[in-house]
């Protein structure tokens, strides 16, 4: 059985989990380092619940507001969306030296 979570708005189905702004709000910051750190935090919380995969991030470029999920896009500017793909590095990132588990946080590059 494969068990995943739709963590586009982070791990919001868990009590006391950290809720970050939707991607459209993060795109306004134009800060790839911030997005990467959010990915790292999300990965830690997801792994704490023993879920190995997430359906995130949404790396779509929304150019038509009639698409009902434009808030999942970082921007209508493809350069901003490209910069915000740093969240993938955060989700897959290196394990901190204090972590006992040697597995990647959420997934590996081979799964993408």
From TrEMBL:
Record-linked SUPFAM superfamilies: (Trans)glycosidases
GO biological process: glucan catabolic process
Transmembrane segments: none
InterPro entries hit by this protein: Cellulose_Degrad_GH3 (IPR051915), GH (IPR017853), Glyco_hydro_3_N (IPR001764), Glyco_hydro_3_N_sf (IPR036962)
Ranges of residues in domain Glycoside hydrolase family 3 N-terminal: 3-94
Gene3D superfamilies (UniProt xref): Glycoside hydrolase, family 3, N-terminal domain
Alphabetical list of Pfam families matching this protein: Glyco_hydro_3 (PF00933)
Catalytic activity, reaction form: Hydrolysis of terminal, non-reducing beta-D-glucosyl residues with release of beta-D-glucose
EC number(s) given by UniProt: 3.2.1.21
Keyword tRNA processing among UniProt keywords: no
UniProt entry keywords in alphabetical sequence: Glycosidase, Hydrolase, Signal
Enzyme class: hydrolase
A GO molecular-function annotation: beta-glucosidase activity
Coiled-coil region list: none
PANTHER family: LYSOSOMAL BETA GLUCOSIDASE, PERIPLASMIC BETA-GLUCOSIDASE-RELATED
Family: Belongs to the glycosyl hydrolase 3 family.
Protein name, as recorded: beta-glucosidase
Origin organism lineage: Eukaryota, Viridiplantae, Streptophyta, Embryophyta, Tracheophyta
């Amino acid at each position: 059985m494969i068990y995943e979570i739709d963590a586009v708005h982070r791990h919001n189905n868990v009590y006391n989990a950290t809720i970050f702004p939707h991607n459209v709000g993060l795109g306004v910051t134009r800060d790839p380092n911030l997005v990467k750190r959010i990915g790292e935090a999300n990965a830690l919380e997801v792994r704490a619940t023993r879920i190995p995969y997430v359906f995130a991030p949404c790396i779509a470029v929304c150019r038509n507001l009639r698409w009902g999920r434009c808030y999942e896009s970082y921007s209508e500017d493809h350069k901003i969306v490209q910069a915000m793909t740093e969240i993938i590095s955060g989700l897959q990132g290196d394990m901190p030296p204090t972590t006992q588990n040697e597995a990647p946080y959420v997934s590996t590059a081979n799964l993408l």
